Structure formats: C-alpha cells, structure tokens
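Need tokens for this chain, all 263 residues.
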Amino acid sequence: MEFFDSHAHLDDERFDEDREEIIEKIKISGVTRLISAGYSLEGSKKAVELSKKYDFIYATCGISPNDIPQTEEELWKNISEIKQITTNNSKVVAIGEIGLDYYWEKDIERRKLQQKAFVKQIELANELQLPIVIHTREAVMDTLQILKENEVLKKGVFHCCPLNRELVKEALKLGFYISFAGPITFKNSKNASEIIEMVPNDKMLIETDSPYLSPEPLRGKRNDSRNVKFMAQKIAEVKKMPLEEVAIVTFENAISLFGDMPK
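Here are the structure tokens for all 263 residues:
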C-alpha cells in the first residue's frame, strides 16, 4: 500500500538532529511520494534542496502569511526570488503555502500586506502554470473573496483545511481540493466526520503537516510522514471505504493536482 503525504515540513529545525534517518524510515514505511512545503524564502530553498537529494520528495515554494517580511519592498524581493528558484524546476510542483492568517496578526495594515502577498503569488502561480497550496486561519471570508476575484488557473488545495462547512462548500465550488491533516482524528473535532462526508472522493488529499499536528493516538509527539496513514484510516472509517482504496484515491488525486512528478 502506497501513501502520498501532500504536505510536510522536512526543513523544520525539529528534524535537524535526525533528518536523514527519518527520511529513510519514511521511505520504507509505504510513503512513496512526499511534498516538503515551503513557507518562507529560506524554507522554500531548503525544500528545493531536499527535493534534489531524494527522488520521492517534491517541493512547494512560497511566502506564507505568517512569514511576510516587515516591508512591502522586501516582500516583492522575496517573491521575485521564489520565482527564480521555481522557474524551470520540475521538482517544484506548486506555489505555497500562501494565503491569509488573522489568528496571529491583528494589525489591519499587516493583514492588507498578507492580502497583497496572496494575490501576487496567485499571479506568479498562473504565470508558471502551477497550482497553489492555501493556508487560511481565522480569515475564511477574505480568503474566499480573493479566490473569487483572482482566478487560479491550475486551482490548488486548502492544506490542513479548517473544519468549516462554509469554507469547504465554497472551496469545492471553486474547484479546489481539500487536504485532511491530524485535526480530523482529534477527539474534540466534533464536525470532522461531517466535513469528510462533504468532500467527494476525487477532491480529497491527506497530509501530516509534520512536525506539527500529530494525529491521535500520537498527539504531543513530533509528527512525521509515516503518520499519514492515520488520516487515511479516519477517512476510511467515515466513508466506509477500504483503507487501500483511500490510499489509492488520495494518491491519484495528488498526482492529478500536482502533475506527473518526475523523479
């Protein structure tokens, strides 16, 4: 059985002491495709480096809302560098993670800068003919408004999608995929099953978002891509599907979204 972890952060410092060892364990666990997601200029560069080193690892590149530089001038410079490392690189499969996060950012002007960065990187994705990977937190309406006003040619995925009915409904209408992470396994995620049922089989992906959000029964421990099976198991339970079918469907969906993904 093969699994596709569509979103992990292998560049994270929590892996600094044993990164190579963990990657080898991931590879033999049945995870045969893995995307190391960039979230800053530095993180994107590290994701690309990992994708060059390991044939089953791919990268996304982007500036997340929580990594927006202090000045607009610096932001445009960072996005320009994202374009440079992404152009003509077959191991970079999307622009992301990008989007909006108002949970931490309360300043109105800083939120406006997040919005500008989001739009600019949508434009970059369209220019490079790549999908986008969306991060949204406490910003559902503004995220959807930007997506409705700025067409995304290759669509994309809501990574670690918030378990919000309106968001999922509108995201699916717009043609986006929904990626499920650890929160769907949490005992306090009361509407997880309902949201899973809402998403058609051909629009769902699975991810770990490691080293964050370890699924049950591993909450509180460092997460890694081997745990992507727990999300698949939860989906299988809710949708009354064989685990192997969930693995196949989510793998095929990721390939449909991100492309052929050459080694």
